[in-house]
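Lecture 7, part B: from sequences to assemblies.

Below are the input chains for today's worked example.
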Amino acid sequence: MSVNATVTVEVGLGDRAYDILIGSGLLLRAGTEISRRLPGTRAAVVTDDNVAAAHLETLKAGLEKGGIQPAVITLPAGEKTKSFAHLEEVVDGVLAARLERGDVVIALGGGVIGDLAGFAAGIVRRGMNFVQIPTSLLAQVDSSVGGKTGINSARGKNLVGVFHQPKLVLADTEVLDTLPIREFRAGYAELAKYGLIDRPGFFAWLEENWGKVFAGGPERAEAIAEACRAKADVVARDEFETGDRALLNLGHTFGHALEAATRYDSARLVHGEGVAIGMALACRFSSRLNLASPDDAARVETHLRAVGLPWRMADIPGELPDAEALLAFITQDKKVSRGALTFILTRGIGQAFIARDVPASEVLSFLRENHPGRQSRPGPQKSSPGQQKSRPG
Amino acid sequence: MSVNATVTVEVGLGDRAYDILIGSGLLLRAGTEISRRLPGTRAAVVTDDNVAAAHLETLKAGLEKGGIQPAVITLPAGEKTKSFAHLEEVVDGVLAARLERGDVVIALGGGVIGDLAGFAAGIVRRGMNFVQIPTSLLAQVDSSVGGKTGINSARGKNLVGVFHQPKLVLADTEVLDTLPIREFRAGYAELAKYGLIDRPGFFAWLEENWGKVFAGGPERAEAIAEACRAKADVVARDEFETGDRALLNLGHTFGHALEAATRYDSARLVHGEGVAIGMALACRFSSRLNLASPDDAARVETHLRAVGLPWRMADIPGELPDAEALLAFITQDKKVSRGALTFILTRGIGQAFIARDVPASEVLSFLRENHPGRQSRPGPQKSSPGQQKSRPG
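Predicted structure of the full complex, as structure tokens:
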């Protein structure tokens, strides 16, 4: 496989099926790929300040090759842009460009831009065409597959949105070289997640090859493709998240609680880092509940540590709220169904499953035992459910 | 059939199928009917000041019978409520009530409330359950079937929204007795539309029985049911409006232009009145293009006049913009696809069809000939394509 080879992943969703193209130099091919699928289309590009500075001119040159001269809507970078106010701004910009239902909204950016632009595309004229050009690793392996779009509410993240599938995703692996390493690592956590859910062979491959994925060789495209395939398989089984799709939340229940506990302060914790710690905690919690071997939990922790990701609450700079407060964040999480605590737990690497009715008392004990405020924390290798039953205070 | 009999219309949309119940006293049965379909559900009622004053207490008593004590979100009455600001208000109110995806948003009101509440239900947590309790005749025969929801933009009406099907529609025919007669008549125009589209027998039945529909006998429920069946048939064929569903726009292209031309001033013209004039014009235009008999156009005009509806531009109080300006409103209409003029025309009563690429010049000539500013206007009975070729100015 040459460095420039493009991998195609087909997301099979019946009449909403689409392709994800993964490879280098795709920004310059955007016009050709889009106009091949949507002949004669007009377009609006939604992006943010940072991404526009780095990639907008390249994308415009690429679109021009397909005869597309887009309207451009540039928003401030950052999570706060996922708001009603900016949604209205994008909607108005698309309507101002006089685009019709058969025209296309193109998201050029990370998850924030993808979620916001996808939501706008889903509601202007009750649904326009949508193309994603994710520029972060997290967006390439996560939000580019599955059709979830949305904004945040004062009452929580991603509480408002629609399911709206793109017509095409262009994951340009070259643009990832412009990412800060911390952001690349955070995206890697979501990528490794698919190995932990149901692809043990992929996780083992990552243990061997993660260095090449970071370096940008053909392994990077292959790893992204495998993550997209894994997510696409789950989404195809459960497009509207009524069942199996919850598996994708592995690491997210603990992770969201930690993000909330650090007030979404990206200096302390970004989403992918929260997911990394959350996955390690979910594996450790599964081991504590005698569902999985502590060796598997240790293996996950070791790999996350190896790539430079945080893997335990103690890795978060600054003080955390106590275990009771963390539990309160968990019970507020939107994935809580009618008061029962639902967790994604695991029987081992690649054997995640949906556990409903997990007792809050078990979660609280576990959080207390693993809280950095606790005087002596058991090392991963030593911990076992039997040894952890003593509780502080 | 007794006055209290309830008619059920099933809207067949696969796993999104739902029932429309039509009859008197349904507000008081709301709790029973909803909790039968959605056991254990919690609810938020979205309504407006006017409807709340007339019907909220009755509905709350009805919900109580099913064990439902709803949160209530009351908005100002009127078209201006279909805005981003009020959408955000409803979304926030639903989230504040801590409703989950399996809970229900209930719209109690006319089209504005149904469109707005349905849109909110479609985007909170990416789609909650939705129940419509339409309190206007227009909403009972139109917006309660088909799943279109939305708000207005500064750039046009209904330009932003989603398709979101309700789980249940309760059309209480008794509440219609509280409507001003002008509003009832406006809704009747949409009801008669289904006869003109593809149910000639229904139109003939209405010509005989319209008085009983207005009076509120069992014929009212039967007429509403037949209109709902007619719309449901079209929607089942084309849920996402990519084809046949456009037939439902009979009368709407001219109608929307007249609404825009009167700046949505309800003192001059309400939506259903615009549709009435629009249907008469669509039939007359079809006759002018030699597609339909002028007798059919005259029959439509006669019936609209008989029930007290406006049927020609001259029936609109105040001055209208000239024919060129009206054409400009038509070409700005959202149903224009890629610059070509699409109209719903007819070969006779009950024989509507989608005509694409209607020449703008023909529309302009027709508008000039039928414009009230024209010195002498041909009477309906006398007009024929041959006689109308002379143009003013």
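Note for the exam: The radius of gyration of chain A is 21 Å. Keep this in mind when comparing with the next example.
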